[in-house]
Amino acid sequence: MQNYRYLKDLRNRVALVTGASSGLGEQIAYQLAQRGAIVVVCARRLDKLITVSRRCQELSGRLSLPIKLDVAQPEQVERVVNKVEDKLGPLDVLVNDAGFGLMEEVLDFDMAIAEKMFRVNVLGLMYLTKYAALKMAKRKRGAIINVASVAGKIATPKAAIYSATKAAVLGYSNALRLELKTLGISVLTVNPGPIKTDFFNIADKSGHYLENVGLFVLDPEKTAQKIVKAIGTNRRELNLPYVFQIMYHCYQVCPWAGDYLAGNIFNKK
């Protein structure tokens, strides 16, 4: 039996969630807490984290720790991982959810924002994964969940930079999964479509994107339930909603049709 399967029971297991001050990260934290985990919630907004942490304690009946963290700062990342292990014990679950996007055409895109997006969405995830995995590897157990996006598989206009960051997360996660498998550490990549969260307060300048793609919009709580349910299994990817998985296969088989769909039917930004 692979070591990661012991995480089917999350009671008293330490789990760290980034991007936990709102949206999907917040809901993942609650789902982990409902299953009895000791949840560490991380983000830049400490006031929001304190509220989330208190709710986690109510749900789990166990300790929860809010820690201010900017994943774009490597020295903060290493310090947080060490702090968690020193205060709470072995880190068993890492959920990399921190990230942001901006819907804008490439020719108009501020490259300073593009660099920041890669720093947060990609490099921040890589740093945190490495420092956490080094701890997990010594124990030969653990689970890492990287939240990518369907945008990393199916790119659409005005999402070039964001799609590039998520494609990087996908490539990194696929290789990481193979490297860590022999160490008893599972790696799950989550590729959600649009989720009804505050993410689009920044990403969508028009303010109408979620309304335009209403048929495909995911509920953050239900999405979080599916993600947490996959912990302790050997599942490699979670693509939500499933219709996007079908679209991706069609995109691979018929690229010209995929370009038409992505550039016209699904271009709602």
Describe this structure in words.
With 269 residues, this protein is of the alpha/beta class. It has one domain (3-244): Rossmann fold. It is 50% helix and 15% strand. It has ten helices and seven strands. It has helices at residues 23-34, 46-60, 74-88, 111-139, 160-181, 199-203, 209-212, 220-229, 242-253, 255-265; strands at 14-18, 38-43, 64-68, 91-96, 142-147, 185-192, 237-240. Strands 3-2-1-4-5-6-7 form a seven-stranded parallel beta sheet, sandwiched between helices. α1 links the parallel β1 (14-18) and β2. α1 (23-34) crosses α8 (220-229), α3 (74-88) packs parallel to α4 and α9 (242-253) crosses α10. The mean pLDDT is 89.
Give the SSE layout.
Blueprint: E1 14-18, H1 23-34, E2 38-43, H2 46-60, E3 64-68, H3 74-88, E4 91-96, H4 111-139, E5 142-147, H5 160-181, E6 185-192, H6 199-203, H7 209-212, H8 220-229, E7 237-240, H9 242-253, H10 255-265
Parallel strand pairs: 1-2, 1-4, 2-3, 4-5, 5-6, 6-7
Helix pairs in contact: 1-2, 1-8, 3-4, 4-5, 9-10
- Mind telling me the CATH superfamily name? NAD(P)-binding Rossmann-like Domain
The strand line-up of the biggest sheet is 3-2-1-4-5-6-7
| Portion in beta strands | 5-15%
Spans where pLDDT lies below 50 across 5 or more residues? none
Organism: Liquorilactobacillus capillatus DSM 19910
Protein name: Short chain dehydrogenase
GO molecular function, one term: oxidoreductase activity
Family: Belongs to the short-chain dehydrogenases/reductases (SDR) family.
